[in-house]
Amino acid sequence: MRRQITGFSNPTVKFLRSLREKKHRKAAGKFLAEGLRLLTDARECGHLPEILVMAERRDPHPLLSALESDVVAAGGEVIETSEDILGKITGKDNPQAVAGVFAEFDTRIESIERDSAKIWLVAQALRDPGNLGTMLRTGDAVGAGGLILIDDCADPFSVEAVRASMGAVFTQKVAQARWDEFIAWLRAGPGQLVAASLRDAVPYRGAPYAAPCFILIGNESRGLPEEYELACDLRVTMPMKGRADSLNAAVAGAVLAYEVLDALDR
Question: Are 186 and 165 in contact (CB under 8 A)?
Fold first, then answer.
């Protein structure tokens, strides 16, 4: 179905704007993504938006035409509106020419197939959506299976996290769980839990990594709780040559993930 929206007070515009808030995303089970590149990545991964919103004055592009055709063929809705209204929907002064509404994914820990990848990223109490999106991008880059979010983390389906993921939210499996739920699931099958730590740690280079390897990263400011560190099968340390005593959480995850990738590929 195709239609045009010209008014800011249109109920559909209000609904789409509401998806910028977590409580409304959870209630609807939907999330927003914006930009032709990101939506094309989603399409190539088998995810089509239920609603495709396009600016009236947009440059023609074959990828946009293909996306539009696929959404219509799948029974989705295509909406044309002004750049101003699209900006209100996405919350950006200079919005992309296209945005999409997707159904949220199954994030139960039971939906994880641990043997489908050698590496998994695990983040505990990660609060910054930019860091979350960056970790998704890292996971995509190293061929990880996905990102498991432990305890109270930023919403992986927020506009900010989706934008920061650069499309990796569609290539990476996302799961959410409390610590007790996660550790019980992990110990019910194969899986090595690894964390960057100073507690009885070995150098991160040359450490005995094993697949499937679950790389655990702690909160940006507090790090990991002691109980969580002690539950790990392997604790590794990364050298800090300057005055800083720690790396950004997403950066630490990336450094460690590439070392694990190298070790498991040997």
Answer: no
Residue 119 and residue 60 in one domain: no
The verdict on 6 and 30 lying in the same domain is yes
A 10 A CB-CB count for 228 gives 22
The answer to whether 118 and 211 are in contact (CB under 8 A) is: yes
Residues 129 and 236 in one domain: yes
232 and 182, same structural domain? yes
CA distance 204 to 156: 28
At 20-57, the pLDDT tens digits run 999 999 999 999 999 999 999 999 999 999 999 999 88
Residue 193 burial (10 A CB sphere; 0-12, 13-18, 19+): buried
Residues 257 and 201 in one domain: yes
Contact 83, 54 (CB under 8 A): no
State residue 238's pLDDT score. 86
Tokens linked to 61: 């592009």
Q: Write down which residue in 59, 77, 103 finishes a domain.
A: 103
DSSP secondary structure of 100-152: EEEEPP---GGG--GGG-SEEEEEES---HHHHHHHHHHHHHHT--EEEEESS
pLDDT tens sequence across 76-105 = 999 999 989 998 898 877 778 899 999 999
- CATH number, position 124: 3.40.1280.10
Residues 126 and 240 in one domain: yes
Q: Is the pTM of this model over 0.85?
A: yes
- Closest to 224 (Cα-Cα) out of 121, 109, 123: 123
Q: Same domain for 43 and 95?
A: yes
Secondary structure of the chain: what % helix, strand, coil (to 5)? 40, 20, 40
